[in-house]
Amino acid sequence: MYIFASVSLTSRHNQGLPSWHRKAQTAYRVNRVIIILQMVAALVMCGVILYGMARVLN
Predict the structure, then answer these.
(1) How far apart are CA 11 and CA 30, in angstroms?
(2) Could you tell me the pTM of the whole model?
């Protein structure tokens, strides 16, 4: 079961791709997950920095 419907559609679409295609490879999916985690971490760190600045300035 998938959380998002688009994931289900994407995985069905990837089954038709040849093995040499970049979207059919495991590294592509792993890199995509790593990039998303980095984006979330950057947003969290922005919040921590803003919170710290607010504490120092007040």
Answers:
(1) 14
(2) 0.60
